[in-house]
Amino acid sequence: MNIQEKIKDWIKETLEIEEDFVLAHPKDLKNGDYSFFVPPKPVAKEDTLEDIVKILSGNKIPEIERIEAVGNFINFYLSKDFFVESVKEIIEGDSDYGKNNSLKNQKIIIEHTVTNVLKPMHIGHLMGNVVGESLSRILEWNKAELKRNNYQGDIGLHIAKALWGIIKLGGMIDGDINEKIKYIGEAYALGSNAYEDDEKVQEEIKEINKKIFEKSDDNLNKIYKWGREISLAHFEDLYKKLGTKFDYYFFESEVVDNALKIVKEFLQKGLFEESERAIVFRGEKFDPKLHTRVFVNKEGLPTYEAKDIAHAIRKYEAYKSDKSIIITANEQDGYFEVMLRALKEIRPEIAIQTTHLSHGMLKLTTGKMSSRKGNIITGESLIEDVENLVKEKIKDRDFSESEKQEVAEIVAIGAIKYSILRQAIGGDIIFDFDKSISFEGDSGPYLQYACVRANSVLEKAISQGVTLGNAPKVTPWETTELEKYLYRFPEVVERAGKEYAPHYIVTYLTELASAFNSSYAKEKIIDKEDLSSPYKIALTQATAHILKSGLNLLGIKVPERM
After folding, report:
1. What is the CATH classification number for the domain harbouring 15?
2. pLDDT tens-digit map of 45-103
3. Which of 83, 162, 294, 383 is 20 to 30 A from 217 via CA?
4. CATH number, domain at 516?
C-alpha cells in the first residue's frame, strides 16, 4: 500500500466515508502534499471545515505532520520523518522500488507494432512499437503476467503489389540488407501506384494475390520467400535497436484456412450474408453506429476482418489471457468496432476481454506520409535523421567516435520515445526535431542528462570519500522540493498501469528532473564540512534510481555520458 492509499483509508475510516473521493497533489507544493475537496459525501452537512480538520487532527497517522483548511480544500502535510524514510526506502529498494501487486495474477497479452512484410516499417508502426513496449513494461512492473505479440501481415494485396513491382524492376537483387529493403520499398510504391492508376495492372496484381494464397506459382513463391525473409530480418534489427522484445510472432498466412472455415460456418448460422459474390457482416444490424464490412471478397479470399477473427481465437488458444490489448492507430477504430462485434457473436468470451487501444498519428511538419506515393518516412530514417542532429550537437565533446555514435543513438531514440509518450495515448503528435533533442526542458535528452548528472555527482562523492549513507541522520530543517516528488513514484506507476497511460510517468519524471536540476544549481551537494551533505547525496542517489527506473519503463536508455 502506497502512502496515498493509506491516507485515503484513514480519512474514510475517521470521517466514516463510504463513497470514494479524489485525494490529489496540490499544484502548488506550498499547499501541502495531498488535498481533497470538502465536503466529501457523505460527511454530515452540519460538520464545518474546521470541525473536519479537528476530527482528523485528533486521530492523525504518524506520516501526517499537520492538516490545514484552505478555501474548500483540506490540505495534508507529510512529516519530515516520512520523507527521510522514503529516501531510505528508495535507496534500499534500488531497481525494485515502486513495484506493486495491483495487477498480480492477471494474464495480459499485448499486440502492437503489427508490421507488414514487403512494406517499410513507417513511423506509424514506430509509434505503435514505442507505446506497446512502454505499456508492456509498466504492466509488468505492476506484476501482470504479460506476453507481447506481434501479428504481422505476410499475405494479402500489399504482398501482391510488392511482388508485381519486384518483377517489373527485374526480380530479386543482391546486396546488403539495407539495399534490398530500399529496393523492396520502391517496388511496393511502384505496384501501389500502378494498381490505382491502371485497371489492367489491377487485374494482374489480383491474380498474383490469388496465386500467393494458393501457393501455385513456384517463381512467385521464390520471390515471396526472399522478400519475406529480408523484411523480417530488417524488422528484427529495428526491434533490437529500439529495445523491443516479443514473446509471440503470429502471421496472417497462418490463419487463412481457419478464417474461411469460420466465416462459412457462421454464414450458415445467419451471422454473415452473401452480397454480390462476397460475404459480409452487417454491423448496423447489431448497433446503428456500426457499418457493413466484407469478410470474404469476390475472389473467395478472406479479408483482414476474417483473418483477425481467426487470429483472436488462435492467440487466445496460445495464451489463455484474462485481457487482450491490441494497439493500432486510431484510423482503425471503426474497423475494430465492427470486427470485435462480429467476434462477440462467434467467441463472446474472447471479445469481452479484448480492448482496442488506439493512438494518434505521428506527423512531421510536412504532414502525413504515404507508402503508396513513395514519400513514406520510415521508422529507421526518422531515427537516423535524429541521430545526425544529435551527432552535430555533441561533435565538440571529448568523446571517441564510437562513443559519439553510441550516445547519438541512445539520445535520438530517447528523444523520439519521449515525444510519443509525453501526451495521452490517442492524440496526434507533431514531431519537432529541434525541440526533441533539446537538453533543456520538455524532452527525452533533458531527462537522460539529469540522470547522467546525478550519477556523475555520486561518482564524485565516492572519489572524495563522502559517505552516501543509506540512513542519513542530519537533514536540512526545511523539506526540499526533491523530497516532495521522490516518494510519488509508486503511485504514478500504479496509475499508469491501471489507466494504460505512460504519459503520467513522463510528466512525473520531468517534474522530478526539474526539481533536481534546480537543487543542483542552488545547493552544494558534496561538502565535507556540511553535516547535511550525506543526506543531499542520498537525495541525489534516490533521484538517480527513480530517473533510471522511470526511463526504463518508457523504454529509454541512459548513456554513461552526454
Report:
1. 3.30.1360.70
2. 556 888 889 999 999 999 999 999 988 899 999 999 999 999 999 999 988 999 999 99
3. 294
4. 1.10.730.10
Residue ranges, the chain, pLDDT below 50: 40-44, 368-374, 470-471
* Model pLDDT, residue 50: 85
SS3 152: strand
CA-atom Rg of the chain in angstroms: 28
**Does a cis peptide bond (omega within 30 degrees of 0) precede residue 39?**
yes
Residue 375, pLDDT score: 55
Considering the domain architecture, whether residues 307 and 447 belong to the same structural domain is answered as no
Please report the sign of the dihedral spanned by the C-alpha atoms of residue 345, residue 347, residue 351, residue 352.
positive
> According to the model, what pLDDT value does residue 477 have?
63
Report yes or no: 312 and 255 within 8 Å, Cβ to Cβ. Answer: no
On whether both 345 and 385 belong to a single domain, the answer is no
Q: How many domains does the chain have?
A: 3
220 and 167 belong to one structural domain: yes
Ramachandran region of residue 505, left (φ > 0), alpha (ψ -120 to 50) or beta?
alpha
Residue that terminates a domain, selected from 26, 61, 78? 78
Residue 24's domain comprises 3-78
Q: What is the CATH number of the domain that holds 247?
A: 3.40.50.620
End-to-end CA distance of the chain: 37
| β-pair type (248-251, 145-152) | parallel
Q: Could you tell me if 345 and 493 lie in one domain? A: no
Burial of 347 (0-12, 13-18, 19+ CB in 10 A): middle
Q: Looking at the structure, do residues 409 and 441 belong to the same domain, yes or no?
A: yes
Strand pairing report for 278-282 and 292-296:
antiparallel
Q: Let me know: does 194 contact 133? Beta carbons within 8 Å.
A: no
**Other CB atoms closer than 10 Å to residue 356's CB: what's the count?**
18
pLDDT digits (tens, 9 = 90+) for 387-427: 999 999 999 999 999 999 999 999 999 999 999 999 999 99
92, part of any domain: no
Q: Residue 42 has what pLDDT?
A: 46
Q: Are residues 217 and 345 in the same domain?
A: yes
Handedness of CA 301, 304, 308, 314 (dihedral sign): positive
Residue 225 lies in a domain: yes
CB < 8 Å & 24+ apart, contacts of 70-76:
70/31, 70/35, 72/37, 72/38, 73/26, 73/31, 73/35, 73/36, 73/37, 73/38, 74/35, 74/36, 74/38, 74/49, 75/26, 75/31, 75/32, 75/34, 75/35, 76/7, 76/32, 76/33, 76/34, 76/35
pLDDT of residue 371: 42
Q: Is 71 left (phi over 0), alpha (psi -120 to 50) or beta?
A: left
SS3 (DSSP) at 78: strand
71 and 138, same domain (yes or no): no
pLDDT at residue number 373: 45
Residues 47 and 140 reside in one and the same domain: no
Distance CA 534, CA 532 (A): 6
Please report whether residue 324 resides in a domain: yes
Residue that is last in its domain, among 335, 363, 391:
363
Integer Cα distance of 114 and 152 in angstroms: 5
